[in-house]
Fold this protein.
Amino acid sequence: MYHCAIQNLIPRRRRRLLLSTAQPDIAESLHSAASADLAPLRVAYESAALAAILGDSDVLAVFGFGARAPAAHADPRYLRVNLEPSGDAAPFEVWRVRGHVRTQRDGDIAWALDGDYAFGAIEVDEAVHGDIEGAAEFAYRRLVDALGASDTPHVLRIWNYLDAINAGEGDAERYRRFCVGRAAGLAAHGFVDAYPAATGIGVRDGHRVLQIYWLAARTAGTALENPRQVSAWRYPRQYGIKAPTFARAMRAPTQSAQVYISGTAAIVGHASHHHDDLEAQIDETLANIDSVLAAAQIAPAGRLDGGAVLKVYVRRAEDLEPARKLLREKLPASAQPLLLRGDICRSELLIEIDGVQSS
């Protein structure tokens, strides 16, 4: 429940942001999403030169991966994620929209907007805010403030990348401290128990800089949960002081079906399964994705087909090639997953998958 006393203090536009993912009737919400007027975001992996991609006015965002990708660009639409790809340099991940994109920088936030969608990104030096908890609280306060003042206040999807995600024991683990900071940054604005899709992955670059980027829209999506899993924000105390704050997926408010799948791993209920068994963890992860796509009312024949763009995060270097081979066997031939070396939020988990499913 939202706290009414807090809610009444929030400006109307910001209140719309905070309540945008709270859906009392999923079936009715999915019906409304199907009749929405937003064109689906076009997400693809592209191997063209960065300058050529950024030369297109319909490009909302471009992501490079690993040390071979350009480190930075003056264009706010470009962001490098310090996760190393499997094998050669990875293609760029490119988001395209139907409108003409304009860009701006608002202090520490980079923006790209077309009226329907907004891409935003912020990078926060942990040392400036004391630690990962302070950096996360600051980043999420900035995120919510900025979106609350925008014409695209409805958050559909968030990605969080931080160094050494599993360092520390018990409640001192960096991921758990990040969750505390994130919750504090959201709770300051009355954001409780209604969340967008999200991913949280550990990089290994040695730089204590929290990197967050997001996709927002002018129309609310529908947050979805997985019947096979406890909602992340309802995890019991054993997983930390503050539970993770994200939905398992988000059905976009688009003319044709589009689902943003959160970071998904081999968790059933709230417990990790298949310790040290890569293939079993892949199977469980794919079962969870299938379950959440069913909840989004995606027909079985359309799940993880050619309309799916996936990122696969693999913890151990020696698992990259086996994971590639196993996914080639288990996914439709049209699926093109991008494998990246990244640490998962629980140290016993070997693999995590997120992505976008479009019809």
In short: The domain at 4-254 is CATH 3.30.1330.10 (60s Ribosomal Protein L30; Chain: A;). The first helix runs from residue 4 to 7. Confidence is low (pLDDT under 50) at residues 1-24. The longest strand covers residues 154-163.
